UniProtKB/TrEMBL annotation:
Coiled coil: none
PROSITE patterns xref list: RHODANESE_3, TBC_RABGAP
Residue ranges occupied by any Rhodanese domain in the UniProt entry: 319-418
CDD domains: RHOD_Kc (cd01525)
Region of interest (Disordered), ranges: 242-280
Gene that this sequence comes from: TBCK
Keywords per UniProt: GTPase activation
Domain Rab-GAP TBC: 1-181
Matching SUPFAM superfamilies: Rhodanese/Cell cycle control phosphatase, Ypt/Rab-GAP domain of gyp1p
GO terms assigned for molecular function: GTPase activator activity
Name assigned to this protein: TBC1 domain containing kinase
């Protein structure tokens, strides 16, 4: 049932056979040569995919995709991406093609543009921030030795791991991937790194390169379990990408959600004034920790918004990770209005010359919160990013920055003023 189940999860519908039949899969095209070279190297341990019939089907499905997507190009790795769909729908090429055509825009939107560097660069930068968010010690080590995602993760994401795992593992992994949204792959990536964590931490650049040139055996069951856990700990907006597929306007389903998800909202929610803003790639690259939206912060703090900023009804408390808001503005600004429950550690005096946290009642609270989600709020983006980077250096996990700073929260009427001390 897997082939049909996946098709249903991908929302495949309509006259798929007529559509597939109508595509010209015979006229020679420039991509033919590359396809001919790739197919005999693609998951050939499998007897279906290595059979002459398998090769012919591969060729037709890949050509159909290339011909029907004139704005995109054939990149090496597309064959690997096709393999799971072809295997599961071996006697139904039209369905294999339809599934692949639905999968790519959801998880790999614009990855197959002729010039895809801006899309890939943004993706890898967000992935780096996810490593820092979930595993600062590993992130610090990999950055120090210069072992950046560009060196190993492109084939992971470009092929959604089909280039690095055999089919039986891919089926298991994708059963879960297809229930998540387009940011779930980041969590799979972090889970793989965490399985190799001890070896990575113990080694330098050259050893890491060797380790990844032939990826060791990965326990896929554990990878799936840990990916889900990472996904549940990640605020929705932390993986925001400018180049992700734009959210479709949701049909009003009368409050019923059609697909099961690990997060409360799987499809990407529509943009509001409190959503994340796009920033230039260089600015994104300069920040170690991810930004989260004001919307997420309000949701995670369970604050009630007044006026025209209406948030959806509150969800049950059980799934909420606890979080701490650290306001790094000076104390005068803090007293004039701050987020309820936040603590004040002014940036100018937060760290000693040695880079340690200055001791005080507020830093003690911060230390007690190590391991929970910590959101840094200020009004100078550079300062919040630096403060966050300091905490990551000190191995604080789950650090993020409020996108747009305190100014995003001001219009919501959520800032509180302490009662005067009499």
């Amino acid at each position: 049932m897997r082939g049909l189940t996946w098709a249903a999860l991908l929302g495949v519908e309509g006259a798929i056979h007529a559509k597939y039949e109508a595509i010209d899969k015979d006229t020679p095209i420039p991509t033919d040569r590359q396809i001919e070279v790739d197919i005999p190297r693609c998951h050939q341990y499998d007897e279906l995919l290595s059979s002459p019939e398998g090769h012919a089907k591969f060729r037709r499905v890949l050509k159909a995709w290339v011909v029907s997507h004139p704005d995109l190009v054939y990149w090496q790795g597309l064959d690997s991406l096709c393999a799971p769909f072809l295997y599961l729908n071996f006697n139904n090429e039209a369905l294999a093609y339809a599934c692949m055509s639905a999968f790519i825009p959801k998880y790999l939107y614009n990855f197959f543009l002729k010039d895809n560097s801006h899309v890939i660069q943004e993706y890898l930068t967000v992935f780096s921030q996810m490593i820092a968010f979930h595993d600062p010690e590993l992130s610090n080590h990999l950055n120090e030795i210069g072992f950046i995602p560009d060196l190993y993760a492109i084939p992971w994401f470009l092929t959604m791991f089909t280039h690095v795992f055999p089919l039986h593992k891919i089926f298991h992994l994708w059963d879960t991937l297809l229930l998540g949204n387009s940011s779930f792959p980041f969590c799979i990536g972090v889970a793989i790194l965490q399985q190799l964590r001890d070896r990575l931490l113990a080694n330098g650049f050259n050893e890491c390169i060797l380790l990844f040139s032939d990826l060791p055996e990965i326990d896929i069951e554990r990878c799936v379990r840990e990916s889900i856990n990472l996904f549940c700990w990640t605020p929705k907006s932390a993986t925001y990408r400018q180049h992700a597929q734009p959210p479709k306007p949701a049909p009003d389903s009368g409050g019923v959600r059609s697909s099961p998800c690990f997060s409360s909202e799987c499809p990407d929610p529509p943009k509001t004034d409190l959503s994340r803003e796009s920033i230039p790639l260089n600015d994104l690259k300069s920040e170690v920790s991810p930004r989260i939206s004001a919307e997420d912060l309000i949701d995670l703090c369970e604050l009630t918004v007044t006026g025209h900023f209406k948030t959806p009804t509150k969800k049950t408390k059980s799934s909420k990770p606890k979080l701490l808001v650290v306001d790094i503005r000076n104390s005068e600004d803090f007293i004039r209005g701050h987020i309820s429950g936040s603590i004040n550690i002014p940036f100018s005096a937060a760290f000693t010359a040695e880079g340690e946290l200055t001791q005080g009642p507020c830093t003690a609270v911060l230390q007690n919160f190590k391991g929970k989600v910590i959101v840094i709020v200020g009004h100078v983006a550079k300062h919040t990013a630096e403060f966050a980077a300091h905490l990551v250096k000190m191995k604080y996990p789950r650090i993020c920055i409020l996108d747009g700073g305190i100014n995003k929260i001001k219009p919501t009427g959520l800032l509180t003023v302490p009662s005067p001390q009499i």
